[in-house]
Amino acid sequence: MGMSKLNSAPSGRPYPSDLDTPVLEFAKGEFIRLRDLFEGMLVFGGVGSGKSSGVARTLAHVMLANNFGGMVLCAKPGEADTWEQYAREMGREESILRVGPTDLWRMNFVAYELRKSGNRSIGNIVELIFKMVEATRLSKPLGSGSGSENGFWEDASRQLLLHSIPIIFAANGTFSFELLRAFMSSAPKTPQEVEEPTWQATSVFHHCFRKAREAPLEPIDSHTLSTCATYWLSDFAPLDNKTRSNIVISLTSMLSRFSQGRLHTLFCTETTFVPELTFDGTILLLDMPEKIWKEDGVIAQIILKYLWQRAAEARAAYLTPEDMRPLFLAGDECQFFLTPGDAEFFSTARSARVASLYITQSLPTIYSKIGGIRPEHTAEMLLANLCTRIFCRNVCHVTNRWAAESAGQGLVWRESKNWGSNSGGSKSDTTGSNIGRSWSVNQTHMFGPAGGNRSATNAGSDNDGWNRSLQNGTSWGEQQGGGLQQQKDYKLDPAIFTTSLRSGGPEHGGLVDAVWMQAGRRFSYSGGDIFTPVTFKQEGAQ
After folding, report:
1. Helix (H) or strand (E) holding 472
2. Are residues 33 and 142 in the same domain?
3. What does the pLDDT look like over 283-338, one tens digit per residue?
4. pTM for the whole structure
């Protein structure tokens, strides 16, 4: 198997801009180029397979050594520590910004977006808020949906936001959900109420509208001001109390998770960091592990990932490709952070010069987070644009068969053998006997001179005998043969991923075997196929 090596370029050099820059070397002169990283990478491997300590570590070193900026999603405690260690090994420790363990780093994303584009981007901001709301639902499977019965209330909530944010921002120069709540709760209940001095004296709504009109802290055009006033006085105020209250409650309930606690502090106070820091080489470690922060950690990281993805794609509008520092998005246990929007991002990440490195155990792990009747369809859509797939040792037959199917089928030679033997024998045993007797009597009368007589008798003889014969014989024979046949079958047998890949550790000398598979690439090491074997070294392996 080929041995992967880090690019030998010295640490601290300017980031590469040529897409054909080699960054990872295989055996037999095979190189992974910068452009290949931007096509997305997906690593599969069972527990203890070396996918993190071997594969992910090597790829992290590659991106850090080439001065990528990026974002790291953390599902497990200790993941941020691991990446800090990688940064030290590559001389990049000063690039780390660790978000989560303290309240130092915060991002009021609505105020952040307003600062960038002002009231011109209100539609985008409303969508951002609903992306945030959507993130709170991702503790449920992706395929579960929110139900069409909520459509009316969500549309009404969008209208309310569209006509609140411009006024609040113009009047205060900032935005917060506390201001939004006070603005909505003090809105007029009838068109006539706006003329009442008592209501005017206590209403945050009245104060914001008057200041936006007379002395705005942020510019607002007359058309936007008029449109917002018409909505509140002509559309919202005349509604019956129940409908009006339900619209407000619908919105406030969607935002309730951000009214206190970690999510409130992180997203609804001030802004001390922005995603664009990564454009200068910063590595954002989102140290909010799911195992500790639970749902709050998943929600926070999904929101920050979405904001970062938007910023990374938007820079192509004002930077040339040569001026765009390479970026990366890395996530071990990526199933916690998958969203429907990832599919679109992966499809355009190459033009944004973003490398995606997602790591998980198996396809069923992803299916379980997606849910629904046919989760494999959603999974295929999400993963289709991760064009490099790296398979480590795995006992999951679903994943192993998917890997074999990804490699494709072809005509392969299959050897056949046959062998046979025969044996036989015969045995005969015969026994015989004979018995015979012969006798005779001879009687003689003799008359002697004295006138007497004399007689004598002669008897014959008896005889017997036997005979036996024994015959025994054995015969034995053997035959064997064989041949080769061409058949259409998997180029990679699924069993390879279970039985033939080393998983690091002392038992394997710290060496981790994997199959590197890349769409559209032909590897000479494997005879022109889209896959090639490769070996990674764990830390300390010789």
Report:
1. strand 461-490
2. no
3. 999 999 988 998 899 999 999 999 999 999 999 888 998 899 999 999 999 999 98
4. 0.80
Q: Which of 196, 229, 264 is the last residue of a domain?
A: 264
Answer whether residue 133 is part of any domain. yes
3-state SS assignment for residue 145 = coil
DSSP bridge partners of 529: 523
* Residues spanned by the domain of 250: 109-264
Q: Give φ, ψ of 303 to 5 degrees.
A: -65, -50
pLDDT at site 60: 96
Same domain? For 56 and 143 the reply is no
What are the Cα distances from residue 245, in Å, to 153, 188, 255? 11, 12, 15
Task: Please give the structure tokens belonging to residue 373.
Answer: 């009747």
In 2-157, which ranges are E strands? Answer: 2-3, 5-6, 22-25, 31-33, 41-44, 69-73, 96-99
Q: Is 379 exposed, middle or buried (0-12, 13-18, 19+ CB in 10 A)?
A: buried
Question: 252 in a domain, yes or no?
Answer: yes
Percent of the chain with pLDDT over 70: 79
User: Would you place residue 449 in the very low, low, confident or very high pLDDT band (cuts 50, 70, 90)?
Assistant: very low
Q: Report the C-alpha gap between 236 and 243 in whole angstroms.
A: 9
Q: Are 326 and 231 found together in one domain? A: no
- DSSP, res 362: -
**Residues 147 and 36 placed together within one structural domain of the fold:** no
| φ/ψ (deg, to 5) at 483 | -175, 175
The residue written with tokens 């909530």 in the block is 157
- Residue 305 sits in the same domain as residue 360: yes
Give the pLDDT of residue 434. Answer: 52
Domain-embedded: residue 276:
no
Given a cut of 70, whether residue 133 has pLDDT beyond it is yes
Contact 467, 417 (CB under 8 A): no
Buried b (16+ CB within 10 A) or exposed e, 123-155: eebbebbebbbbbbebeebbbeeeeeeeeebee
Q: Specify the pLDDT at position 147.
A: 45
For residues 114, 120, 124, 126, the Cα torsion angle rounded to the nearest 10 degrees is 70
- Number of structural domains (the chain) is 2
Segment 167-181 shows an average pLDDT of 90
pLDDT category at 491 given cuts 50, 70, 90 is confident
Q: How far is CA 457 from CA 220, 280, 423, in A?
A: 166, 146, 66
Which positions ≥6 away from 13 have C-beta within 8 Å? 67
Residue 69 sits in a domain whose CATH number is 3.40.50.300
Q: Which helix (H) or strand (E) holds 398?
A: helix 397-407
Same domain? For 240 and 378 the reply is no
How many whole angstroms separate alpha carbon 481 and alpha carbon 43? 44
- Residue 72 placed within a domain: yes
Give yes or no for a contact between 113 and 128, defined as CB atoms under 8 angstroms apart: yes
Residues 368 and 302 reside in one and the same domain: yes
Residue 535 and residue 401 share a domain = yes
